[in-house]
Every structure is written in C-alpha cells, then in structure tokens.
Design brief:
By secondary structure, the chain is mainly α. Helices cover 71% and strands 0% of the residues. It is built from 21 helices and no strands.
Length: 460
C-alpha cells in the first residue's frame, strides 16, 4: 500500500497525457473497437463508423492520416475477431463512463500497474518468506521505473504486465493448495488471461500438466472446466456473429496467421513477417491440401532443417538476449552482492562504499532520458555481437549455485510455469522483446535472490 501511495503521489501529478492516439499498429484496431462499443454499442467492430474526431486520432503526420483514410474503405460493421476481446472491452467501459478521454484511460491503466507492482512483495513472501518481501520490493521499484510507459499506451501491455504479476502471485499461492475453490479461482483467472491475450495459452496447458504430474486428476479437471466456462460466453457470442459457414474458433482467428508469419522463408531473422501468410499454398503443397496450418508449419520446418535452425536461433537472439534491462541489472546485482559479501567477511568499509556508489551511479545514468536510449542501443548491439556465449555465461552462475550442495536458489513451480510459458511462446511464434518484457519482474526478483545466495556462500 505504501508503494501505491508513494508512486501515485510522486508520478501522477507530473503526468501529462494528451487526448490523442497515434493510429499505428494494434492501437488503431483497439481504439476503433473501444469507441464503437462506447458510442454505438457495437462490438467488436473495427470499421470507422463515426466522424474522425470521435476516435481522437492524432493525424498530424501524413502517414497517420493516410492510414485512417485506408481504414475508411471498410464498409459495414466490420466485425473483428483477430483481437482478443478483454482489452477493448476494458477501454470501451472506461470510455462509456468517462467519455472518450484518453487521459482517463491512461490514468486508470497507471493505477492498475501500481496496484499490481504492490503485489510483488506479497508474491515474494509466498516464494521466499522474508527475503522475498525485500527482493519483491526491489523488483517492484525497478520494474516501475522501466515499464511505467506501458500505462500510457492504447496497447494490451497496459493490462498484460499487471495480469502476469497477479498470475505469478496466484500460482505461487494456489499451486500448493488442495481445496477445489482455489483451483476454480485459478481456472477463472487463467480464462480471463486467455480473453486478454493468447500469451497465456501455454500457462493454461502447463498448469494443467502440473496437476496431472502431481497425480491430481480431479483438480486438473476442475481447472480445465473453470477455464472453459470463463471463455465460453465470448466463444459462443463470436461464433454466432461469424455465422455457421465460417470455421469455429475459441478465442481469435489470429493464431494461424501469426504461426505462419513466424515460420517461413522470410522469418530467418526471427522477427515478424506477415508476408509469410501469402506462402500458404507452398505449405499446403508440402503437407497436403486442406491440412491445418500448424501441421503445414511443422512439415515445412522438418523439410527445411537449415531454415528451422536459423529461425530458432534468431528467435532466441531477438526474444531473450536483447532484453538488456534484466541482463544489466542482474550483472549489477551480482557485482554488488560479491562486494557486500566480501565486506561482510573482511569488514572493509570501502567495499560497501564502492558497491553503493556503483549502484547509485548506474541508476542515475539510466534514469537520465538522453543517455537512456543511447545506452539501450549500445547494450543491444553488444548483446547481438556476443550472442550465445553471453547467454551461457549469464546462466552458468545461477545454475552453479542451484547445483551446489546448499541449493540456495530454487525456482518455484509458479516461476517455472510462467518463465517456460513465455519462452516457449517466443520459440513457437517470433522473437519479441515486447513479449518477454512482460516477465522482466521475474528476472529482477531472482537477481535479488541471487544476491542473498552469493552472500550466504561467501560468508561461510
């Protein structure tokens, strides 16, 4: 609660939000759908059915104005089932209550982010008791400084990051619970996540697999039932609007296109290539006409091993190694931990002083807006050059400590589920630092836990 109050008092009075949205990328769809819901009670429509001013688009740039004009070529309700429904429902509800004022939406998103960050010390306590509280507080502060800009975007990240923090806390508490009520609550929460973003499909599968592994078949059945009941209203509503002639879908119609656009000849750089969707005929020729896209992609990858290896390596490269803030802060915390541990053992005040100066100096350097982005570019360039050796170096330290006889650093089942889900998602689809950035708080948390582990080892 103290974190919430301090953050609101410190940042909110200084926040200046414009009532304009730049119509680029997914933001264009989200804003149109939300405004049409608020003003016309049509959902989910992505056609411009109102005057331009109603959508509060920023069209000062010619490219943005042209993008709006292109969208006006769509006629009719223009129902859009490519997007998950929850974020646009959230935006539409805010606009219904407050009017179409982007500043209100940003303020509410900011408050949700702060409340979610305040859960990190609570989740840390569930994972590592008192140490987890302190480390969770440190992680909350770092993520707040790095990710507060998510709240000032009409993008799903504004809710995905808070949801992921809540998911980690709920899994940390409920995976150890044996009562059916906790399982149902977790299933409902996972269903809400599926309505928010397809990111959380692997989480649902891994959570179910965890209960099956623990020989708790009845609980896994309750979990799956709760998930399906939660998403059922949207599934029924969406499929009724599309009509009986179209294919059935559970959440969105986007999955197959994204899968195809992430695994094709053009995607050997590991990034997003929508032009790959035009290669559908080539995949059908490989796997047989009418085969599901997933099977076509699998057949293609098996038939082109060199391309598959290139795509996978670049997805790792883009999706994990360019997440410079976690790597940077983990290395910083390791250095401070060594210095503090040595100071504890040898009692020289100079070691503690050097550690504090290094931490404060680097924090001030990063917080300076001019050098922040320049440093990001240099760090990304460095990580791209060093590649796999750096990953092995960074991962070897916690692995060595985990394999030590003390076993001081253990990943909780909840952490493993969240980490594996997001990394698996990046491997199946495309390497996106934007996706993996949603779990930066976990890297921060375990970097702090690593400080304690190193300190304990060196103090012996």
């Amino acid at each position: 609660m103290a974190l919430v109050l301090l953050a609101v008092m410190w940042l909110y009075p200084r926040a200046t939000y414009e009532d304009r949205v730049v119509p680029i990328g997914d933001t264009l769809d989200y804003q149109i759908i939300a405004v049409n819901l608020a003003r016309l009670n049509i959902f989910p429509s992505d056609a411009i059915l109102l005057p331009d001013s109603a959508y509060h688009f920023d069209t000062r740039l010619a490219a943005d104005a042209e993008r709006i004009n292109e969208r006006k070529q769509h006629t009719g309700p223009g129902y859009n089932f490519v997007r998950n429904p929850l974020y646009t429902l959230f935006c539409g509800a805010v606009y219904k209550v407050s009017g179409v004022h982007i500043s209100w939406l940003y303020s509410i998103q900011f408050l949700i982010l702060i409340i979610a960050l305040s859960l990190l010390p609570v989740a840390g306590a569930a994972v590592a008791d008192q140490r987890g509280v302190w480390v969770g507080s440190l992680a909350a502060l770092v993520i707040f400084l790095l990710s507060r800009s998510f709240a000032t975007e009409v993008q799903t990240q504004a809710l995905v990051l808070p949801y992921t923090i809540g998911l980690w806390w709920l899994l940390s508490v409920n995976l150890r619970s044996t009562d059916v009520f906790s399982i149902v609550v977790m299933g409902i929460y996972l269903g809400i996540g599926l309505l928010l973003k397809n990111f959380f499909i692997p989480v649902a599968f891994l959570a179910t697999a965890y209960y099956l592994y623990r020989h708790q078949r009845l609980r896994s059945l309750f979990l799956v039932a709760a998930i399906l009941i939660t998403i059922a209203p949207w599934t029924i509503y969406a499929n009724r609007l599309t009509g009986p002639s179209d294919r059935f879908f559970w959440l969105t119609t986007q999955g197959e296109d994204v899968l195809l656009a992430s695994n094709n000849d053009a995607a050997t750089d590991g990034d997003w290539h929508p032009e790959g969707v035009t290669l559908t005929a080539q995949y059908q020729q490989l796997s047989g006409t009418g085969e599901p896209i997933a099977l076509q992609v699998f057949t293609y990858c098996v038939s082109h091993p060199a391309h598959s290896i290139a795509m996978l390596s670049e997805k790792v490269h883009l999706g994990l190694l360019t997440r410079w803030p976690p790597v940077l802060f983990i290395l910083l915390l390791w250095t401070c931990a060594f210095l503090v541990a040595l100071a504890h053992r040898m009692r020289p005040a100079i070691a503690v002083l050097v550690a504090l100066i290094a931490a404060v100096a680097l924090a001030c350097y990063l917080m300076h807006r001019g050098t922040f982005y320049a440093f990001q570019q240099r760090a990304d360039h460095l990580l791209r050059i060093t590649g796999l050796p750096l990953l092995l170096l960074v991962s070897s330290v916690p692995l060595s400590i985990w394999l030590s006889r003390h076993a001081l650093l253990r990943l909780s089942p909840a952490t493993c589920i969240v980490l594996v889900s997001f990394i698996l998602l990046n491997m199946i689809f495309y390497g996106s630092p934007r996706i993996v950035g949603m779990i930066d708080f976990l890297w921060m948390f375990y970097a702090g836990m690593l400080m304690y582990s190193i300190g304990d080892l060196l103090a012996e």
